[in-house]
Structure formats: structure tokens, C-alpha cells
Amino acid sequence: MSPNILIIEDNEQNMYMLSYLLEQNNFNILKAYNAIDGLKLAHEKHPEIILIDIQLPDMDGHELCVKLRHNGLPKETVIIVVTSYAMGGDREKAIESGANGYIEKPINPDTFISQMESVYNTK
């Protein structure tokens, strides 16, 4: 059975691309367009994987990772930052905030699923 995936992404085009790729690979997805809705869905639905953008309108993805990790989210939940922030130290900052992995945008549609699964399978 495929894991449930929550996508927290405010950009419509990015949400469409991620949703499309995941649905084509038989994943069940939940969508949130801001951090507050993402927190709520994460705690209600307990997805196995959460994909988070760093630039969100109501709080940044690093703060969101911390909140998810320290507010009752199951410890086995895999959080992956999917972001265009690709400066030196950004990957480390994401991991320090509680993410299990980091994938840079623009994503490669041919490799995204395998990148995500490699993070999920090494948790």
C-alpha cells in the first residue's frame, strides 16, 4: 500500500506538478496551501510523508518543521523539504529543523519519485 502524502505548497503550479506526479504513481495525497492548514491536516490525517515548501505565506517551512516535530506528529513521519532555496547551508538548516530530506526545485519529473522514496525508505 502506498503511503499517504501531505503536500504543503502555496504555489499552484508546483502543487499541480507534485500532485500529478504522485497521483500517477498511485500515492494518496492531501493538499494544504499554507502552514496552518498543513498543521491541521497533518494532525488529523497522520500522513506517512509530508512535503513542505520553505516559502509559505503564514510561516516559513523551517518553523513548520519544528512545529510538526514537537506537537504530537508520529515520530516515524517523514518530512521532506522541497524548495528552491538552494544556498549553502539550506539543506543543513532543513535537517536541523526536523526534516528527513531535502529536494531542490525545480524538481526533475523523471527522478522526483525515486528521490522521495529514497528518503522515505531510509528513515
Topology:
Elements: E1 4-8, H1 12-24, E2 28-32, H2 35-45, E3 49-52, H3 61-69, E4 78-83, H4 90-97, E5 101-104, H5 112-121
Parallel strand pairs: 1-2, 1-3, 3-4, 4-5
Helix pairs in contact: 2-3
Describe the structure.
There is one protein chain. The protein is α/β, with parallel strands linked by helices and 123 residues long. It has a single domain, classed as Rossmann fold, CATH 3.40.50.2300. 41% of the residues lie in helices and 20% in strands. The protein has five helices and five strands. The chain has helices at 12-24, 35-45, 61-69, 90-97, 112-121, and strands at residues 4-8, 28-32, 49-52, 78-83, 101-104. The protein has a five-stranded parallel β-sheet, sandwiched between helices. Helix 2 (35-45) runs parallel beside helix 3. It is globular. The two termini are 17 Å apart. The model has no long low-confidence stretch (mean pLDDT 93).
Short structural summary:
With 123 residues, this protein is of the alpha/beta class. Helix content is 41%, strand content 20%. Strand 1 (4-8), helix 1 and strand 2 (28-32) form a beta-alpha-beta unit.
Strand order, largest beta sheet: 2-1-3-4-5
For the terminal residues, how far apart are their CA atoms? Answer: 17 Å
CATH superfamily: Response regulator
Q: What number is the mean pLDDT?
A: 93
Number of β-strand runs: 5
Structural class: alpha/beta
CATH architecture: 3-Layer(aba) Sandwich
SSE pattern, N- to C-terminal: EHEHEHEHEH
Radius of gyration: 13 Å
